[in-house]
Amino acid sequence: MVTMRDVSARAGVSKATVSRVLNGTGQVKESTRQQVFSAMEELGYRPNFLARSLAHRTSNSIGLVVSTFDGFYFGRLLQQASRQTESHGKQLIVTDGHDTPEREREAVQMLADRQCDAIILYTRHMSEQAIMALIDNINVPLVVINRDVKEARERCVFFEQRNAAFQAVEYLIAQGHREIACITVPLATPTGKARLQGYRDALEKHGIAWDESRVKNGDSTMTRGYELCQALLASRTPFSALFACNDDMALGASKAIYQAGRRIPQDISLFGFDDAPSARWLEPGLSTVYLPIDTMIVTAIDRAIMLASDQPLPPIAPFTGTLVLRESVTAGPHYRHPAA
Amino acid sequence: MVTMRDVSARAGVSKATVSRVLNGTGQVKESTRQQVFSAMEELGYRPNFLARSLAHRTSNSIGLVVSTFDGFYFGRLLQQASRQTESHGKQLIVTDGHDTPEREREAVQMLADRQCDAIILYTRHMSEQAIMALIDNINVPLVVINRDVKEARERCVFFEQRNAAFQAVEYLIAQGHREIACITVPLATPTGKARLQGYRDALEKHGIAWDESRVKNGDSTMTRGYELCQALLASRTPFSALFACNDDMALGASKAIYQAGRRIPQDISLFGFDDAPSARWLEPGLSTVYLPIDTMIVTAIDRAIMLASDQPLPPIAPFTGTLVLRESVTAGPHYRHPAA
DNA sequence: CTGTTAGCGCCTTCAT
DNA sequence: ATGAAGGCGCTAACAG
Known about the structure:
DNA-binding; 3 domains; 13% strand; Rossmann fold; alpha/beta; 434 Repressor (Amino-terminal Domain); 12 helices; four-stranded parallel sheet; homodimer
């Protein structure tokens, strides 16, 4: 490995001078600058990142932990994160939390140990308490995404899950549906709870009785969406619309519906959540909720960088979802024409 | 930041001893071990990863660069990569190449500068020559995935793209299709070329004339699959089957087919590539090619680690795809019953 | 078993 | 404008 010493020797200067031209710090005569540069060139010198970070006490990188790498959602997120980080001239280091709270915590620790300037945590599993503990214990600024930690709200970039679900179900109701089934994402997660709550709230607001037999607890997978929808179909509880708490499960459910000889949307209307890339191309196109994950991750990164440079964080409004209406929902049995 | 010095002071020993208990190297009396441990505990000491790596001359991490984070495919890959790396007790650092050759190169450089013990490169865009240059210039072992670099074959983990495409198209032919359209993935990539070549080879083998008007160059996106299929449908060149060179485009194409009032598979049979998670749940289920990306990345990581520890690399056979037959293909106009 | 002494490769005063 | 020296936090002989 060719080090700064080699370069300094070759250029006939001291290591300090090489360091200066490398970092553009201090004054250095143009002619010696050139000498140093050509020496670096000739030797194929590459600064040692670790050594530099150690001395600098900053690795010029920001860490990102996602709960899992799987799914279109995180691909979308990572892509954007990577670009935004680079636009700040920093390096992004990503790790996954293997979809368990313990691993999520470890991942953050590991990034902190690597001296990241700031860390962004997208957690699905850690408790609010565990998150606070982390914020207090690691000496690296932490930004939390997809979670509203009340004691540290300015570090949180999150999304109005409940309200978005509420809107979706209310839309279904406005279309004349009253018998609306629901397949949830894991209720152990705040996201799962919030989406289900949105469903309940909408029913309640419109005076529709809650019927336990119409809601099934899913696990976010297509397979489970399929199975649970089959169960729903097999039960004697009828429904004219199904609210699947994510698009993957909606897709699985659609298969079950077709196989049962029913049609979408004529027999059963279907609403998803997340706006998966495929949603638009399914037949019929899947109505769903768009989550501004791109904007959110950009915001999170910007804030992480502000924290890293000790800038104050301006307050931030929660993000909201947008209903994306396509063809998978049609008028239900109770539909009344607006003019009526 | 609490350092080893603090711990050593607190425990009343030297830094060296602390280092010993930390790394389990050398002999340390049990009693002092305990002292050191409790000192670390009380102070909340965390070793500085950078400093340790600098001294060790190994960061105990392996780097992975993917051409992009987008798509289900890389999610699947990253997930597996992360697990496999950890099972070796190393840390995985991933970066994306923004889907351009220069960025892919830069990403590798950056990982090398960070002193990764080994690097795995999944490139879609770099030339074979550029890859070789990289192998020669960085002083970190490199494993290449999804590419067959002849001068360094033992470092390559790749997949028989051409043959898999060949099999898919031959299957279509066996089902009685002779007018088979094709939508490619970018022909600027080796993958794109290989899959198209497989299509050509199959036609040729079965004496079917190549018809330029039946093949369209796609870009891998659902949108483009939709558009190109529309174009195909609008042209006067008929086709009874469509070979889409990835599942995303197949999905887009399916929408175009439905919108044109045609049915799958009764009017047009459809074959994809990649076995996207959704393929199985579409209606009808999409026949496609499964690519053993999980196994491939595991192999790549194992080999990267072998390289990092100077073990010799055993030769490796190219991976092969598997046809996943579902319902999107049916007998074509030229189908002859096997018994006939 | 443990402490002392040199580094790892780079940065940063402080002189000159 | 440049060099010498010490330090970032940790590891690795070498003594004892």
